[in-house]
Amino acid sequence: MSDDFRGTPLDAEDFEKGKVLFTRDEPKAEYAWDTGVAIGRYLQELKNGRLIARNCVKCRRVMIPPRMHCEWCWRPTDDWVYVQDRGLVNTFSLCYITWDMQRLKTPEIPAVIEIEGASPGHGIMHKLGGVDPKKVKVGMKVKAVWKPAEERVGSILDILHWAPT
Amino acid sequence: MTRRVAVVGIGSTPARTVTPELSYRELTYDAAVRAYCDAGVEPRDVQSFVCCEEDLNEGISISDEYTPDQLGAVLKPVHTVGGDGLHGIADAVMEIMTGLVDLVVVESHSKASNILTPHHIVSYAMDPVWNRPFKANPHFVAGLEMNRFLHETGTTAAQCAQVVVKNKRNALRNPAGAHAADLTLEDVERSLPVSEPLRELEVAPASDAAYVVVLASEERAKSLKGRPVWVKGVGWCSDTPTLESRDWARAEYAEGAAERAYRMAGIRNPSEEMDVFEVDDTYAYKELQHLEALKVFGRGEAGRATERGITSATGDVPVNVSGGALGAGHQLDATGLFRVVELVLQLRGQAGERQVRGARTGLAMSWRGVPTTSGAIVILGCE
């Protein structure tokens, strides 16, 4: 093969044996992001097993995850509104690779779920579970499957996944 | 300048050591509301937005994608500059000067308190192959530079300490003076060594804040209610990044940036023609080194001038009346806009008890911190 192409072929062994020189380093980048008013309350309510949104009275819009300003009319949002822990699948994908590109036999199912009680087109990004991947459809009704109360910490992972109702 | 550009609005949140009550989005929204109100514009009037931030400081890759909502910039032209806020001002000035747009917003914020490993983040700016393996604290770069600066110019350690005393005292008069203190020279000289000759109190500590600045063309500025502050000149410059062969005593990047800004503003004698200076003081010696690079003082003269009170708030050449980074905190890439906001307040006569009397023209200068050799300058004026 090396006769067919110009240059010198390299394989993994050349790196392992130090024939090719390189420097390795791993970042230690650690952060603790302030959640602020909107997301702070959102996480607190997740710990309580509830979903909360913010309402903009001018745009007549209920937003989840909540935000303290409406990016449409650019006013402060007005009220806290509890919304349902069920909704409709807006879009989904069957994902056959993990975040670090390992192949999966059973796909993960990331989905955007339009939340009942929030404005149409407003939802949260999560995962579907307890469902045959082949049977997932846009518009499917789903409900949150929560972690047991004592295991919830105030994180989006306090919901295990969303399952068909 | 064919098309004149003005600052027509400023908005900020006061610098704080921590800001746990607000997310960076909420903090920025707060600054933006104030800026638009100050300018008398609505975000829908703004034609272009420039943000200044770095992903590793935010902890978010492509962090600029998260900027539109809190600025009212959804479905508008937005771009991010990986540089100081003054680089962002330069971008806005170019957009307006070329006639592309008439109203531009520049934003930058610091949530430095959210970075748990700041020294690791800074050390990631070092060359990964030939500098980073030493695993030295990045402040050593400042130690090396300060040592050579003192050696070549005859500046004394006490003169550097005086910068700390001055700036932290100035910050006592600034509501944004997050690190204000009334210290003596002895307090600074007794503080622990960081990387000699650099001492702990000579290093600007970090703080959080958000800034939004609204800029407009002359025509647009004249249609607004407020009194515009004119951009007289901008300049920016980068030296070689190498630690091995850079000039350790002189801030050549600042000289280059100043040359360009002065040419644009038509300034020949900086200390005579400008009334107020907000100049990078990330480390105390940097204020002196930068003032010499800006030709405000001759080589080796900035330290003596500081000792004699010339750079104090009531001196002939007031430098960092705001308290600077030593007094208000280093605010990542937002530090440049902190300086712009101070200049605008001074030139409008709105700086309260720290007002410099008769301030008509001012200069802001930023440096991108160790190990960089990049700086930017903005000159503002009443006329």
Textual characterization of the structure:
The complex is a heterodimer of chains A (165) and B (383). With 165 residues, chain A is mostly beta strands. Chain A has one domain. Helices cover 10% and strands 33% of the residues of chain A. In chain A, the strands form 2 sheets. In chain A, strands 4, 5, 6, 7, 8 and 9 form a 6-stranded antiparallel beta sheet that branches. In chain A, a hairpin with a 4-residue loop joins strand 1 and strand 2. The N and C termini of chain A lie far apart (58 Å). The model of chain B has no long low-confidence stretch (mean pLDDT 97). The two termini of chain B are 13 Å apart. The longest helix of chain B has 16 residues. The relative contact order of chain B is 0.19. Chain B has 15 helices and 11 strands. Chain B folds into 2 domains: 135 residues, 3-Layer(aba) Sandwich (Peroxisomal Thiolase, Chain A, domain 1), CATH 3.40.47.10; 219 residues, Peroxisomal Thiolase, Chain A, domain 1. Chain B has a 9-stranded mixed beta sheet, sandwiched between helices. Chain B is globular. Chain B is of the alpha/beta class. In chain B, strand 5 and strand 6 form a beta hairpin. Chains A and B meet through helix 2 of A and helix 1 and helix 3 of B.
Give the distance, in angstroms, between the N- and C-terminal Cα atoms of chain A.
58 Å
The arrangement of helices and strands of chain B along the chain is EHEHHEHEHHHHEEEHEHHEHHHHEE
Q: State which percent range the strand residues of chain A make up.
A: 25-35%
N-to-C span of chain B: 13 Å
Over all CA atoms, what is the radius of gyration of chain B?
19 Å
